């Protein structure tokens, strides 16, 4: 009895190449000539390099060095980022979402219309800014604030470029620009907070709203899931887009909700509970002393 021998390498390659061809054909060809848009590999390499710097190079570099005093640089950087994100947010609002975009299902316009090209350029700028955001991590490392370079921080800043690349490569317009519009608005508020925090102790009284910033970020991810998930259920939304985009964005948004939610609970809920427990223990001790 003879058994048929399959060449699994050829079979896997066939399906892989077929999938890549199907997937790549849905790209926006207007973005082909832009740096880092020709393949996802450069973005993946940069993501791996960033993680390596966070976990290995950064701590090693600062091991025997004193923290750098770079407060002015931090303030300047965050002020610049406020205006860059405000520009992108305003452009997406005036060109798209306040103009004629549908909040439910907006098709992608791949034409050479000036407005469509402008929206595509903002999508690409948003992608590039995800690398600029890494400067935040550099500041933490140079100041030896390694507790700030947490698992949440590393994961968020590692994978955001992949989400932005996906958007700029396949959906630099239409439905996919909602994340850019929403996230840049969040970053305006976030970098405003960072600016005030870096300006010294006398501005601490203006930072009472820190916990609401985290809540704002959580709401953002929920809205991205609800809005982006339409491509999975409404045929007209996903007809010109790779459905993998919806799955990937939904998956990443769920992870971000988990990580930011855990941070919120650990930072703003558990300490309060511990204080209440300690206060209750103290009251019980006082009662025991008085009764004795």
UniProtKB/TrEMBL annotation:
InterPro entries the record matches: ELO_fam
BP-aspect Gene Ontology terms: fatty acid elongation, monounsaturated fatty acid; fatty acid elongation, polyunsaturated fatty acid; fatty acid elongation, saturated fatty acid; sphingolipid biosynthetic process; very long-chain fatty acid biosynthetic process
Cellular compartments per GO CC: endoplasmic reticulum membrane
Topology class, membrane: Multi-pass membrane protein
Major location category of this protein: membrane
E.C. designation(s): 2.3.1.199
Membrane-crossing residue ranges in chain numbering: 44-62, 74-99, 119-142, 212-235, 247-265
Coiled coil: none
Homology family: Belongs to the ELO family.
Compartmental location: Membrane
GO molecular-function term, one example from the UniProt record: fatty acid elongase activity
Enzyme class, broadest EC rank: transferase
Catalytic activities: a very-long-chain acyl-CoA + malonyl-CoA + H(+) = a very-long-chain 3-oxoacyl-CoA + CO2 + CoA
Keywords: Fatty acid biosynthesis, Fatty acid metabolism, Lipid biosynthesis, Lipid metabolism, Membrane, Transferase, Transmembrane, Transmembrane helix
Pfam families cross-referenced by the UniProt entry: ELO (PF01151)
Name of the protein in its database record: Elongation of very long chain fatty acids protein
